[in-house]
Amino acid sequence: MISFESFKENHKICFGSDNHSGAHPKMMKALEAVNYGHAPSYGTDPLTKAAEDEFRKHFGSHAQTFFVFNGTAANVISLRALAAPYQSILASDQSHLHWDECGAPEFFTGAKLLLCPTQNGKITTDKLTDHFVRRGDQHYSQPRVLSLTQPTELGTVYSIDELKSLISIAKEHGLLIHIDGARLANAAVHLGVGFADLTTQLGVDVVSFGGTKNGLMFGEAIVCLTPASAHAMKYLRKQSAQLPSKTRFVSAQFLAYFQNDLWSEIASHSVTLARYFRKQLEQIPSLHFVAPTESNGVFVKLPQSIVKKLKDKFFFYVWDEKTFSCRLMTTWDTQQSDIDAFVTELKSLLQNKEG
Amino acid sequence: MISFESFKENHKICFGSDNHSGAHPKMMKALEAVNYGHAPSYGTDPLTKAAEDEFRKHFGSHAQTFFVFNGTAANVISLRALAAPYQSILASDQSHLHWDECGAPEFFTGAKLLLCPTQNGKITTDKLTDHFVRRGDQHYSQPRVLSLTQPTELGTVYSIDELKSLISIAKEHGLLIHIDGARLANAAVHLGVGFADLTTQLGVDVVSFGGTKNGLMFGEAIVCLTPASAHAMKYLRKQSAQLPSKTRFVSAQFLAYFQNDLWSEIASHSVTLARYFRKQLEQIPSLHFVAPTESNGVFVKLPQSIVKKLKDKFFFYVWDEKTFSCRLMTTWDTQQSDIDAFVTELKSLLQNKEG
Amino acid sequence: MISFESFKENHKICFGSDNHSGAHPKMMKALEAVNYGHAPSYGTDPLTKAAEDEFRKHFGSHAQTFFVFNGTAANVISLRALAAPYQSILASDQSHLHWDECGAPEFFTGAKLLLCPTQNGKITTDKLTDHFVRRGDQHYSQPRVLSLTQPTELGTVYSIDELKSLISIAKEHGLLIHIDGARLANAAVHLGVGFADLTTQLGVDVVSFGGTKNGLMFGEAIVCLTPASAHAMKYLRKQSAQLPSKTRFVSAQFLAYFQNDLWSEIASHSVTLARYFRKQLEQIPSLHFVAPTESNGVFVKLPQSIVKKLKDKFFFYVWDEKTFSCRLMTTWDTQQSDIDAFVTELKSLLQNKEG
Amino acid sequence: MISFESFKENHKICFGSDNHSGAHPKMMKALEAVNYGHAPSYGTDPLTKAAEDEFRKHFGSHAQTFFVFNGTAANVISLRALAAPYQSILASDQSHLHWDECGAPEFFTGAKLLLCPTQNGKITTDKLTDHFVRRGDQHYSQPRVLSLTQPTELGTVYSIDELKSLISIAKEHGLLIHIDGARLANAAVHLGVGFADLTTQLGVDVVSFGGTKNGLMFGEAIVCLTPASAHAMKYLRKQSAQLPSKTRFVSAQFLAYFQNDLWSEIASHSVTLARYFRKQLEQIPSLHFVAPTESNGVFVKLPQSIVKKLKDKFFFYVWDEKTFSCRLMTTWDTQQSDIDAFVTELKSLLQNKEG
Predict the structure, then answer these.
(1) Cα separation of B275 and B271, whole Å?
(2) Which pLDDT belongs to residue A3?
(3) With contact defined as beta carbons under 8 Å apart, do A89 and A144 qualify?
(4) What pLDDT, on the 0 to 100 scale, is given for residue B172?
(5) Which one of D87, D100, D103 has the shortest CB-CB distance to A86?
(6) Is the pLDDT of residue A288 over 70?
(7) Which of B235, C170, D129, D243 gives C175 a disulfide partner, CB atoms 3.0 to 4.6 angstroms apart?
């Protein structure tokens, strides 16, 4: 067998992203457990039916779930189901949809993405209605979807009340609601609520439900909460090249994810470690934070002069090259000792700098 | 842990498809072996670099490989790299591209699919030039790509000479060449040649190289053999929602696939078993075959009256509901005893029918 | 003033197409008549309202009409209103949509075009249901629209009964109906019926109603006969770059077109002249006709050896380069003497050939 | 003949838009002059060749011109020629492309529109490079085109030096240059330069050259200044449903437009009248202007309380409903007396308001 071990050497402690971690051991076990014999392909196997049922337990009995490979796909296929090309999609001016998908939303939907101003990564209600003044004007791409990232790209979490306000305004103006929930479990844990409280109960239409950033090897779910949004979904998924042939391997991971509330265990670990990280960093008076830490990421500005040295020992991303705001992400396998090592090194570099 | 065992019960012997089988044990081992610590995401990890190198060994030192999730994606992204929307793509009138992708080629490329007549699933040279008579006519979608499925959807294999003839005509008329190679390994084994002999040496531009149908859990490769075809590929892949975040898990499987010629072992097994299957069936004089068996599928017409009974015991697809032509696929885990059981049952049903 | 006269010289008698002729004098007068002062743009002017009302007189009180520039646009925007990208559009294997739009239908709709076999240019009912056997199969682009060209590209006309049969089958299978009516007036005259008899009364959803080929300088109409098809049309038209800014100049021409049944006068002239043409040609025993002459085109096979010589004196198109089937089109300004000149020359060439 | 006169009644003096005016008398004469006999369709007629030559006189001997119906089309087809779907197009945050095309740019190109901050409607150089920091990053839609509106949507004109600066930065970063020149003639007149000085000499790739807003009944030109941009243009135009069949009627108008510098006469009239308008309004001390008046539009804030009354007598648009900034457009048939009447009424309303 190939010496896969050789690739392991010199791994730095990593706060790069929750998709830098591997598969959670229970996911790996699930993959092994279902790797027997033959199973019908393209989502028609019994494991997939069972996993779809599991989603119904969390999102309500009317939820219809469609597994896909990755988060970009979950988002753009969801949006295909909600918006026609002559319509527009409202998203935050920090949104992954706008900045990090190489134009996938526009390519898949043919529609326009319109940006909404944010505070701490969250869309504010005050300017939202500006987008609706040209309702009915044939020259203006008609707003049809509000896409909310929960938690946001800055690691903050919309409260239930904030969601209610935004969704209420949106619905008054005829919009449908999409949640980009690549890390939705972290938001649920932070708020101490269930998935339905964050979505179904608030009138959300479709959720992109993350797996890969929550311990899966691969796999995301499009959760349709309204019949209209699910109506053509199986065709949209196929035409969008996202119907897994050996679907059972996605489904098995999601079955494991929900079993014994593993989802909550993973999310709690990540969120707790991020809080711990924040607390340690707050003890360094010279640091400024970019946003509250409400899920599994700490955003903090670091002095430019020490960032390179820190990166020699730890893997993390500079989020904004202008302000040297850095993103420190925790995940299911982050250890408290990883954080302690980082903070110790940071303190030492800051002292040397000052000294 | 969830009782995944419960889903196993009553599994029929299956000749449904090579994507009904699970992951080859060596793939599963590779997945386990690389499931350690953190790795850079989105194809920037060392395992992915190593896997890309492995493809260069087989396809030539200039090959540039891009991993994606599934075969539909490998095909349509390849075509995006080769054809503009005002151009057309020539494919066989039996092609998966036309019949089984829910319009994904048209959706992703915006281009037109033009069908070519076939014999035994293979495009014939005689009518190919019909497509070129309107070269330069602004009203006519301009032919730009010839897409060849190797092996074909009917389990036949283009010979090197047949490929040379088709590619030569195509290139004379300014076309680029795409190979839909979801099962290319089977063709290589059947012809006793290497991958480059079937592609690089013949002037092919891009290959969709299959993994999932050859023992992988998931994962395919777009192999660009010309610089022009690779030029924008990383953006096309991302925009097409097919950049895996935890790429190492695709790469590790392909590393295992090429190690010690596992690819050849798997393909040989499948092809040999299909030949055996054919030979057993040929001993039943009343049966008619649809096409030669040159890879891992036997296409045979079965009497309508017994198909249902056979399907009660074995899983397989009726390929053409009008002629009751049936497709019997072998895969890496097909056993000779599976085939024997099928043939025995078939003989028995035929005798009862006649008796 | 520029010497536009200089461009006139040496004009051949032309049977090339009904879009080779200029604007009918009454259209030109209408353009002059409305070229005063300022008018609201983008379809909000009173002339446009009046023209839309005129269409309601002919297509029924629920008809909603949207003016566009040309026939390609009328077709593809109509199809955008009827089909989603994961659906397919059934059209004849002779259709302009397939052969002569440089892939515009696929580009605008993202959907798949599926071809239906024809007899005399008309889709036959016998194989139509073949397209519906995979209804509900996620891998198959789902048939949603039947597009009928009336008159057909071969100058034949579907009878009311033929339309009823095709539409009845289509509707049983959940399809919507589009009429490509670039020359619909000619069909109406041939059948001796009104526009509603050919469309509204038969359950048609959307008509592409031709102007340019019927005496207008430019301008076509999308006539929506169902509320659903009209629902997003104003946005689809704008996004498709087909909202004329000085709309009054399209509308005025259509007002003139319907005034005092000018439409009927123009169509009758064209159809009558084509019948005359056919009759003259039928007196030459050696000629073979490709299809019945039921609107304004005669399709006849001419000996290859004389075609070039004929083309030196007359402008017309060889429709099929293999069979030397030629298309001879009449239009609003075709003269009987033009036809006589052609027939005389043809006879002379044939005699010389034989002699 | 229909009483087109009846539609004329009660026309208000109109400063709505230059597309509210009709066709210039010389355009109408050109249309009449070429309305004879038959001409080859789809741009193959001699008038079209002559008009294309005329463009070469103004834009340089390598210019290749393609006529289309309207300005939206000229823009989006130009952009199709310059940008692939994975690339992005930089346009001003005031641009018609973004605000008034119902998403046509995204729909036709599949690419992303990125907005640049402006001053007086003109993109400033200072933040332009922000868009290039993620060059080569597969997650980021790659900037490929800078689209400049000349004159801008606020009636200002980029100076030659401003164009040089912007284009120089853009080209350093690998961008192609598109000019949205719906009113380019007005900019040329304002700056006292020729069309090539504003485009060809500065390295512009493609110009959308306006006709409809400059006295034509309909018709715009896509002027390709580089071979690469023209390469596939005839197919892009056809597939985009913008190939006029009776092309001669567009071409004849453009021939007339360039004859005896009619273009300059029309533009000078419009620009001069706008300057006059501005001058009259500047005599009212209480008014605030939104931007300099450099082409044919005056943008001025009017007290909300009098706008409605003014609109009862004159047609114009409120440009910004929040600030009551109003747009007053002149065109080829605007009369000084129209302006005087407006100013007199405005003064009277302002006095009454104060009184």
Answers:
(1) 6
(2) 73
(3) yes
(4) 98
(5) D103
(6) yes
(7) C170
Tokens for D143? Answer: 């900037």
125-184 in chain A: CB under 8 A from chain B: none
Structure confidence by residue, pLDDT tens digits, A6-46: 777 567 899 999 999 999 999 999 999 999 999 999 999 99
Q: Helices in D91-232 by DSSP H: which ranges?
A: 96-99, 104-109, 160-172, 184-191, 195-198, 227-230
* Pairing relationship of beta strands B176-181 and B206-209 according to DSSP bridges: parallel
Q: Is the pLDDT of residue C40 over 60?
A: yes
Cα–Cα distance for residue pair D239/D4, rounded to 1 Å:
36
Find the length of chain C.
355
- Confidence band, pLDDT 50/70/90 cuts, at residue A155: very high
Nearest to A52 by CA among A264, A267, A250: A250
Going by pLDDT thresholds of 50, 70 and 90, the confidence category of residue C269 is very high
- The β-bridge partners of B112 are B88
What's the rounded mean pLDDT across residues B132-156? 97
Strand partners, A318: A326
Mutation pick from A17, A75, A102, A317 vs chain D, by most beta carbons of D within 10 Å, is: A102
Scanning every residue of chain C, which has its alpha carbon at the shortest distance from the alpha carbon of A137?
A: C235
The DSSP code sequence of B194-250 is -HHHHTGGGT--EEEE--GGGT-SS-EEEEE-SHHHHTTHHHHHHHTT---TTTHHH
- Tokens (6 digits) for D233: 């243009």
Among positive and negative, which fits the CA dihedral C238, C244, C248, C249? negative
Q: Is the pLDDT of residue A1 over 60?
A: no
Chain C nearest-CA distance from D11, in A, is 7
Q: How many other β-carbons are positioned within 10 Å of the β-carbon of residue D135?
A: 11
Q: Does ipTM top 0.85?
A: yes
d(CA A300, CA A290): 6
Give me the residues of D, 304-333, that contact C with CB < 8 A: 315, 333
Contacts of D195 (CB under 8 A, 6+ apart): D58, D59, D184, D185, D188, D207, D209
Does C86 lie at the interface with A, CB-CB under 8 angstroms?
Answer: yes
**Is the distance from CB of C317 to CB of C17 less than 8 angstroms?**
yes
| D94 inside 8 A of chain B by CB | no
| Pure H helices in B240-335 | 248-258, 262-282, 304-313
Phi/psi class of residue C78: alpha, beta or left (left: φ > 0; alpha: ψ in -120 to 50)? alpha
Question: In chain D, pLDDT over 70 holds for what percent of residues?
Answer: 98
**What does the pLDDT look like over B69-84, one tens digit per residue?**
999 999 999 999 999 9
Which residue of chain B is at minimal alpha-carbon distance from D232? B86
Q: C333-348, pLDDT tens digit by residue?
A: 999 999 999 999 999 9
Judged by CB atoms closer than 8 Å, whether chains meet at B235 and D142 is answered as yes
Structure tokens at A185: 């479990």
Is the omega angle on the peptide bond into residue B151 within 30 degrees of 0, that is, cis?
Answer: yes
A84-94 pLDDT, tens digit each: 999 999 999 99
φ and ψ at B314, to 5 degrees?
Answer: -130, 150
Q: Are D90 and D131 in contact (CB under 8 A)?
A: yes
pLDDT of B10 above 70: no
The separation between CA C275 and the C-alpha centre of its own chain, rounded to angstroms, equals 18
SS3 assignment, position D322: coil
The tokens describing C267, both together, are 């169509």
A311: part of which helix (H) or strand (E)?
Answer: helix A304-313
Query: pTM of the prediction?
Result: 0.97
The C-alpha atoms of residue B44 and residue B51 are separated, in whole angstroms, by: 12
- CB of C81 within 8 Å of a chain A CB? The answer is no
- For chain D, what's the residue count? 355
Alpha carbon dihedral D102, D108, D111, D113, in 10-degree steps, equals: -30
Q: Phi/psi at C74 (nearest 5 deg)?
A: -55, -40
